[in-house]
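Appendix C. Worked example: Type-4 uracil-DNA glycosylase
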Amino acid sequence: MIEARDMTPAELAALLAFHADAGVDWLVEEEPIDRIAAFAAEKASRHLARSQPAQAAAAPTGGAARNSDPAGRSPARAPAPAPASAALPAIPDENAVAEARFAAESARSLAELKLALDGFSGCNLKASARSTIFAEGNPQSGIMVIGPMPSADDDREGLAFSGRSGLLLDRMLFAIGLSRNDVLISTIIPWRPPGDRMPSAPEAAICRPFIERQIALAEPRHVLLLGNFAARFFLGETGTIHALRGQWREIGSTSYRTEALATLHPQELLTAPASKALAWQDLQAFMAKVRQASA
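Step 2, the predicted output written as structure tokens:
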């Protein structure tokens, strides 16, 4: 395998461009490195190095100092502090979930919940994300659209469903007589996972109180769930979106329950355009239920 040190600058630039085009935006080591602990150890070493000349100048001179070691060796230098463990410091998952639940339940409005989410640091996803994605749109509409997690476009723009999938969602809503201004749009996970990977179970558990509180505060009468992750997250099942779509189910928390229907995510429709017919059936069923409730 060719190593980086054996490559020319032009070859390195070409390799980085290839990775960027492939969607890679984070480079990691094979083993986790605690950069904070490494910096602390380096700082302590520098402090020790600066203090030793002063100690040597203050030490007594002459034979007593030279003969302090019977063999005539120089006094041993104090070892530098050992680096801390490579494990990253983190809040235990159960404590982070409890903190998230307390922060979410303490909010009495969506504005307060947004502030609580901005100030929350118990989820590691926040450290690598550029933006915190929160509900946008009309909370009085009675309609909520919930996706899985932010994409790279969402993270860059700071808005759920940006980019190509956002344009397709706009067209999907327009087809049933709605727009972004007519609904409340949010994501289950407020921070984009590195490399667009799926959130882990602990990460999803930490984020759950915030999305459930968004639902409770907005009190939507109907919720449209988009994609596999959103359907499984709220319905508590492991089937694919093709098995879970088109069925009205009750979701929510102990403080508020509402009806939801799952359908395919816009990104899934961009990947498999043949599935648009299924999504159109779901959208028609969703809007029929909304109109029936408002009649």
